[in-house]
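Changelog-linked ticket: guanosine-5'-triphosphate example.
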Amino acid sequence: MGKSKSVFVTIVGRANAGKSSLLNKLVGEKIAAVSSKPQTTRTRITGVLTRDDIQYVFLDTPGVHKAHNKLGEHMLKAVNESVSQGELILMMADCTKKPNESEKKLVQGFSKKTKVILAINKTDLIREKEKLFEIISEYSALYDFEEVVPISVAEDDGLDIIMKLFEENAAEGPHYFPDDKFTDQPEKVIMAEMIREKALLNLNEEVPHGIAVTIERLNERDNREGEAILDIDATIYCERESHKGILIGKGGSMLRRIGSQAREELEGFFGIKVNLQCWVKVKEDWRNREGLIKNFGLE
Ligand SMILES: Nc1nc2c(ncn2[C@@H]2O[C@H](COP(=O)(O)OP(=O)(O)OP(=O)(O)O)[C@@H](O)[C@H]2O)c(=O)[nH]1
Ligand SMILES: [Mg+2]
């Protein structure tokens, strides 16, 4: 064994670039919710990977966007705080999109002493190399990046290159987390996020953005066959009475679908049979109410 080393990598970028997908891939566990809807991630999520003597600590952050409510402002604050603390930043872009205003603002906030690597993701979606070069040069004009690396998280392409760059930036020092730990997310938060992810997957337009999930009760017991079962009671909050109807669906079909997809993932992750009960409640316009944002742990 060599000397103990660690490196902190803050992952930032536009919404939907694939930041959380990358976090999950690098850590090797599904710890962050992923969806095709922008603003999936709402708080900073820590993922940890310990390989031999090096501990990599990845900080996934909400995608930068133009905030339309108080929750959006909290999300951007989480990004700005993470950026100012970061030793090393991995900015993620989407090779099918040109830089937007939020990304321009983001790079302006980078401190001169922080190294920033740019990963241009989703190269699997682009056929002509010319297009990729165009995007690379547009981003390179925005900021003096240490390195620019085209990657595809979906196809596991280029991830070895960025890992190598992280490794080169590891500094001698203690491991900040136990070597077998892979996230700082409490169990209940992981559960709630799995349920929210399934809601995002199944709902459209305004409804998914106004969803919040809380875990009300957890209880482990043995069933009659002596098999361990985890009872989970969850509340899914939405913003309007009309959204509640959509969330429950015809004869409860939508809520059942979300519940059964979530249960399957929960069982796989926690390695135990799960009995999941989901309840739906309305909290009018909660994304603009500080008290509720705080209650949902999104402050
Ligand atoms: N084709 C393709 N899709 C990808 C790739 N990486 C991620 N995606 C998809 O892009 C979408 C967004 O992924 P996320 O990981 O949730 O993106 P994010 O940057 O964390 O988004 P926010 O949390 O909203 O900021 C999902 O549908 C992913 O499956 C990739 O390399 N190729
Ligand atoms: Mg995310």
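Closing comment: Example verified and attached. The chain has a mean pLDDT of 96. The chain has two domains: 5-172, 187-295.
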